[in-house]
Design a protein that fits this description.
The complex is a heterodimer of chains A (173) and B (444). Chain A is of the alpha+beta class. Chain A has six helices and four strands. Chain A starts with a helix and ends with a strand. Chain B has two domains: 124 residues, Rossmann fold (3-Layer(aba) Sandwich); 265 residues, TolB, C-terminal domain (Neuraminidase, 6 Propeller), CATH 2.120.10.30. In chain B, strands 1, 2, 3, 4, 5, 6, 7 and 8 form an eight-stranded mixed sheet that branches. Chain B has a four-stranded antiparallel sheet with strand order 11-10-9-32, with no helix packed on it. Chain B has a four-stranded antiparallel sheet with strand order 12-13-14-15, with no helix packed on it. The longest helix of chain B is centred in the first third of the chain and has 17 residues. The chains are: A alpha+beta (173), B mainly beta (444). Chains A and B meet through α5 and β3 of A and β16 of B.
Chain lengths: 173, 444
């Protein structure tokens, strides 16, 4: 547990760095952390304040990275988030992950499927370089089929061009 | 359902003007629409309600006449002169035509018909007249089928009229398989649907429990290839249209497979397979499950489509840095780039006539459906909008259907069709939102 807490503290530091790219998500999380007392208060197992929980991974480590238009190259910010993901995955070895690659709506359906696959794979490769076993990481592309933002302007597109690391307990199927 | 196409030879004998016994060159056809030319004025025609001949045919005769008219006027090449303007009344299919009465209202073409119903069987016959030449155009024809398939009888009549006047192949007696859509963009439900080309007789082929994409008809229209997320990952399935039974294709190991299309032989399937983030094109024998890799590059290769003779494949690749169109031999090998204009080119589809490729083009923030020759020449953009994509050809290679998605939070997808001349852009009637159309061959 001590070890996990130390890891979590390191992660928090990393998160501060990546807060810019993850702003929309962290607005909520900061409030949540404050109310629950974060690391100072009692930790509810499985809650967002439990550093071993998928919720914590999702909200505090950051489960997603964003991409430039038609690109699958990882930005410096994305690498920081993914380093945090790798650290979390290395600490919580019981979890596997499916990395979902997504594209914004400005592209043809088939191309965007292939582009989403490139993005998901870029994340997978990076996590592997950070010591996560490839056997724990699967990829899937959704192309433009599953946007989270539905407006047709760049501010929405930017959030839709993403790769999301979705945790699952146990061995990969 | 089977239909029979029978020449009305007995009726021909009674024809007053031209008959099939005249030499070919004597059968001049002044009534003609060149659909590749800029048509200024749609051709006016009259189609008096088909004569009911026995049985409970009156209602059906009326409906069939309406569908014949809608097919023809829907092309934008014809204009119906309403019945209220008619002088002559057609009360018998075999009576001689009073050309003067039709000339007087400026009907250039006259279609007469008769419908008889016998139990579950329906028979429709028709004749086409060139009013100003005072002559029948072609032979009278008769179609038979089940009453449930009455719309097909109407489409066959309209197809014959369309073909005789335009000289183009028919396409009304065809179907479209597509993705029916429901819900907002961030929670969209998709299921496969099939309908007549004009939106009638919609039937749903799958439920919406998993994402389904881009259905593609087999060359005979009996099967449909599509991509489904049933397993959580995109995989290719083949569905039998009659039984709605489906099975997954034995694609090689990889994260996902998608963008399938049949070869003209109906046995080979080309598709994209993704491995380690890279997407290449493969072909598979659908029976043996044996796959062959056709491209091998670190770039995205997808959206393959066979030439009608099965010898070549057009596809898109971003090997040059942006999406462009390429043609390669059906067995793989060095591709030739065919698109060179500004912008990105994707989703190429080879025309059933072999002369053109239809594509999606993205340029300056707009999407277009366009056509070009197979050497990349004579590029013509037919549409422009926020998002047009995924063209599919009518069986005669003269009309293209595609997906148009509207902009913004309420954005929804619809099917549109357009002539290869760029004329007659119109929304296709569907039950709810719709995307990814695939046009069937002409029904047998």
């Amino acid at each position: 547990m001590k070890h996990t807490k130390r890891a979590a503290l390191t992660l928090m530091a990393i998160l501060a760095l990546s807060a810019c790219s993850q702003k929309e998500k962290f607005d909520n999380d900061v409030a949540l952390g404050g109310a629950n007392g974060g690391l100072n208060g009692s930790i509810q197992p499985g809650s967002a304040s439990d550093p071993t929980s998928p919720l914590y991974f999702q909200q505090s480590v950051g489960d997603r990275v964003l991409f430039a238009v038609d690109q699958s190259t990882l930005s410096d910010e994305a690498r920081v988030v993914l380093a945090g993901q790798a650290q979390w995955l290395n600490t919580n070895a019981d979890y596997t992950a499916v990395i979902e690659g997504h594209a914004d709506e400005q592209g043809t359906r088939e191309y965007n499927l292939a582009l989403g696959a490139r993005r998901a794979n870029a994340v997978r490769e990076f996590l592997i370089t950070q010591g996560v076993s490839g056997a724990r990481l699967k990829t899937v592309t959704y192309g433009k089929e599953r946007p989270i933002e539905i407006c047709s302007v760049e501010s929405c597109y930017a959030k839709n061009r993403r790769a999301v690391t979705v945790l699952a307990a146990g061995a990969i199927s | 359902m089977t239909t029979h196409l029978t020449r009305l030879l007995t009726l021909l004998a009674a024809l007053p003007v031209l008959s099939a016994t005249l030499p070919e060159e004597a059968r001049a056809e002044p009534l003609r629409i060149e659909i590749t030319e800029g048509v200024i004025e749609p051709l006016p025609f009259a189609v008096p309600t088909f004569v009911p001949e026995g049985g409970a045919a009156a209602d059906m005769a009326n409906q069939i006449t309406r569908v014949v008219s809608e097919d023809l006027t829907g092309t934008g090449l014809f204009r119906e002169i309403p019945a209220s303007a008619h002088i002559a009344k057609i009360t018998s299919f075999s009576s001689p035509v009073q050309y003067a009465d039709w000339k007087a209202i400026n009907a250039q073409a006259l279609i007469t018909g008769a419908v008889s119903v016998n139990g579950q069987q329906i028979t429709v016959k028709f004749r086409l007249y060139d009013v100003f030449s005072g002559a029948e155009m072609g032979d009278g024809l008769q179609f038979s089928g089940t009453t449930a398939g009455w719309r097909r009888m109407a489409h066959k009549v309209a197809d014959a009229v369309y073909s005789r006047i335009t000289g183009e192949g028919p396409y009304f007696d065809s179907r479209v398989v597509y993705v029916s859509e429901n819900g907002p963009k961030n929670d969209r439900k998709k299921r496969l649907a099939i309908m007549d080309y004009d939106g009638a007789n919609t039937q749903y082929l799958t439920d919406s429990s998993s994402i389904v994409l881009a259905p593609r008809f087999s060359p005979t229209g009996d099967r449909v290839l599509y991509t489904s997320y049933e397993t959580g990952f995109p995989k290719i399935y083949v569905l039998d249209v009659a039984s709605v039974g489906r099975r997954t294709l034995a694609t090689p190991q990889g994260t996902m497979s998608f963008a399938p299309r049949f070869a003209p032989n109906g046995q080979t399937v080309v598709y994209s397979l993704e491995q380690g983030g890279n997407t290449d094109i493969y072909s598979m024998d659908i029976n043996s499950g044996q796959s062959v890799r056709l491209t091998n590059t670190p770039s995205i290769e997808t959206a393959p489509s066979f030439s009608p003779d099965g010898s070549r494949i057009v596809f898109e690749s971003d090997r040059s840095g942006t999406q462009q169109l390429y043609v390669m031999p059906a067995g793989g090998g060095e591709p030739t780039r065919i698109s060179f204009g500004q912008g990105r080119y994707g989703t190429p589809v080879w025309s059933p006539r072999g002369d053109l490729v239809a594509f999606t083009k993205q340029s300056k923030g707009r999407f277009h459906i366009g056509v070009m020759r197979l050497d990349g020449s004579e590029e013509r953009l037919l549409t422009a909008s926020f998002l047009d994509e995924g063209p599919t050809w009518a069986p005669n290679g003269r009309v293209i259907m595609f997906t148009r998605e509207s902009q913004g939070e309420q954005g929804a997808a619809s099917l549109y069709s357009v002539d290869i001349s760029g004329r007659n852009l119109k929304k296709v009637r569907t039950e709810g939102s719709a995307s990814d159309p695939s046009w069937s061959p002409l029904q047998k």
